Amino acid sequence: MVFFESKGKLSIYKGCVIKLITSEKRFFKRERLDKILALLNEKNFVSIKELQSHLNVSTITVRRDINELESRMLAQKVYGGVKKIDSDAVESRFAERRMMHSRQKISIAKAAIRFVNDGDTIFVDASSTTFEFVKLCKEKLNDLHMITNSLMSALELLRNPTCTVTIIGGTIRRDNISAVGMDAEEMTKHLNAEKTFISCRAFMPSTGTFEINPSVGLIKRMMVKNSNKVYLLVDDSKFLKRSAFMAIPIDDIDVIVTNSGVDKEIVERLPKRIQLIIGEE
Question: What's the rounded Cα separation, in Å, for the pair 203 and 213?
Answer without folding.
Answer: 15
